[in-house]
Design a protein that fits this description.
The complex is a heterodimer of chains A (about 280) and B (about 210).
Chain A (H helix, E strand, L loop, with lengths): L5 H4 L3 E5 L8 E5 L2 E6 L5 E4 L6 E5 L2 E5 L19 E4 L3 E3 L3 H8 L5 H4 L16 E5 L4 E11 L10 E11 L2 E7 L7 E12 L2 E10 L6 H19 L7 E2 L12 H12 L6 E2 L4
Parallel strand pairs in A: 15-16
Antiparallel strand pairs in A: 1-6, 2-3, 3-4, 5-6, 7-14, 8-14, 9-10, 10-11, 11-12, 12-13, 13-14
Chain B lengths: L9 E5 L7 E7 L2 E7 L5 E5 L13 E3 L2 E3 L6 E2 L5 E3 L16 E7 L2 E5 L13 E9 L3 H4 L4 E6 L2 E11 L2 E9 L4 H27 L1
Antiparallel strand pairs in B: 1-10, 2-3, 3-4, 4-9, 5-6, 6-7, 7-8, 9-10, 11-14, 12-13, 13-14
The chains are: A alpha+beta (about 280), B mainly beta (about 210).
């Protein structure tokens, strides 16, 4: 790993579910560096040469950084809102760039083709105009006023509805989705994707949710989210090149890809380039 | 192995393995192409990468006379020209949105592709008929220097079309004597498995020595 990746070294990453740490700890890696997550009070994350890394336990996960994080972990205020069910989905390993995993999560136009008859269905393929901005104060990418027709938007939804979405990227490999809550109109369900970069071309993905849903069995909620993400994995492992191109190069974005365009621009601006391809090939 | 030129025909599949309205990854020494047959039977070989987001087109689906990308459904016609972008149904895709297409021909039950249009058609392989394609975990160079070999398997005359598709990865299209009966074909098919093991074993022994 080179100094060129310093801006990403100084970020927070999920490395374990706090509730599921085995007694001997979880051996894993972060950006190519072998680490061990040790249970206890407090939870510790250590490198093989005995260095203790910064640790935060939040949103069900253990977060750490190989460097010196300049900011606190991003806030998800809904995580503390009474009445929400916090769902730890677990981990899915994907042979792709951690940045590609995030970009795919920001994409809505693939729903009818990849999540057919669940999150989308032909002929409802059109994505209307929506707003995208890089918010200077928070330094986050936001997409708002996103709307899409879905046959079964959530486990608790029966029948098709037009769903409203907001997307947020508060950290280079973490993203938060707010979507219409079928059980409680006026509130947003929160679904996140926390991505642990193992290498530039391999990642562990930790979905996590904060939902208003008292009905659905926990197992069903987890299975639903895992099924969706496994469908995404078949895409993510077969994109060329494996690294995310930050310059348009040989790709052709359309208006529906503006969230992706903003995300890539934001990554480039901050030199968040671990898992990225800088020169168009 | 002979030095392949862009104008050489490369056998990539047997006709029987690509029915109408399907797509397969066609392995060549230079990488994978998306090879598809339209509903009306027309063959097209395209670069295996959707120009939109880089998804492999060989994972896509064929409807009518178009191949669609599995990621966002962008569809491509017989020339590789993008015809439809579902997220913008009203948009006529600009001519610049195109997947590169390559020469493809089908002859005597074998599908051949070339990266540039060759001056002559692919070989007819008269006197033979296609049986099956197999993959071998060995280098093509260990099997043949010419890309083609004649062997006797189960007493039947067999022609093997050999294509190296990667390090330790070889594709062999098995052609049998056109006069071979169904029983002969089954016997050859079994014997080919033994031939594959011999080739792979040979590779391992060479590695060990």
């Amino acid at each position: 790993m080179t100094m060129a990746h310093q801006p990403m070294i100084d970020q927070w990453y999920p490395v374990a579910l706090a509730s599921q740490l085995p007694p001997e700890g979880r051996a894993t890696q972060l950006m190519g560096m072998p680490i061990t997550v040790l249970p206890g009070t407090p939870v510790r994350v250590v490198t093989n040469d005995g260095r203790d890394l910064h640790v935060i336990v939040r949103y069900g996960h253990v977060w750490t950084s190989l460097g010196k994080p300049s900011k606190e972990l991003f806030d998800i205020p809904e995580a503390d809102q009474p009445g929400r069910r916090l769902v730890e989905v677990g981990v899915v390993r994907v042979r792709c760039s951690p940045l590609r995993a995030v970009e795919n999560f920001l994409d809505i136009a693939h729903f009818p083709f990849v999540h057919t008859d669940i999150l989308g269905a032909e002929p409802h393929t059109e994505v209307g105009k929506y707003d995208v901005e890089i918010r200077d104060e928070e330094d986050e990418v936001w997409a708002t006023k996103v709307q899409f027709y879905q046959p079964q938007a959530a486990k608790s939804a029966s029948g098709g509805i037009t769903t409203d979405y907001m997307y947020r990227v508060p950290a280079p490999t973490s993203t938060v989705l707010y979507k219409t809550c079928p059980a409680r109109p006026g509130e947003w369900d929160v679904i996140t994707l926390f991505v642990q970069p193992l290498t530039e071309e391999l990642c562990d993905v930790w979905p996590w949710m904060a939902l208003f849903d008292d009905e659905t069995a926990l197992t069903d909620l987890i299975h639903f989210q895992q099924m969706i993400f496994l469908q995404d994995r078949s895409i993510l492992e077969n994109q060329i090149p494996r690294l995310l191109p930050l310059d348009p190069g040989r790709e052709i974005p359309t208006r529906a890809d503006l969230t992706s365009v903003a995300y890539r621009r934001w990554l480039k601006r901050h030199q968040f380039t671990y898992g990225a391809q800088l020169v168009a090939q | 192995m002979p030095v392949e030129t862009l104008r050489d025909w490369i056998p990539v599949a047997l006709s029987a393995d690509l029915p109408p309205a399907t797509v397969i990854p066609a392995h060549t020494p230079s990488g994978i192409l998306a090879l598809w047959r339209s509903a009306s039977g027309k063959l097209t070989a395209l670069a295996d990468r959707c120009p939109h987001r880089g998804m492999r087109l060989s994972y896509g689906f064929v409807r009518g006379e178009a191949l669609s990308c599995i990621y966002h459904g962008w569809s491509y016609g017989l020339t590789g020209q993008c015809q439809r972008i579902p997220v913008h149904p009203e948009l006529i895709p600009p001519a610049a949105i195109k997947a590169a297409s390559y020469a493809v021909e089908e002859r005597n039950g074998v599908i051949w592709i070339a990266f540039e249009q060759p001056e002559t058609p692919p070989p007819a392989l008269e006197g033979f008929k296609p049986l099956r394609s197999i993959t071998l975990n060995t280098d093509a160079e260990r099997i043949t220097a010419t890309g083609e070999m004649r062997v006797l398997l189960a007493g039947i005359d067999v022609l093997l079309l050999i294509v190296g598709i990667g390090v330790g990865e070889t594709l062999a299209h098995v052609m049998v004597d056109a006069a071979a009966s169904d029983v002969d074909c089954i016997a050859v098919s079994r014997a080919v498995e033994g031939w594959r093991r011999e080739c792979e074993q040979l590779g391992l022994e060479e590695l060990a020595s």
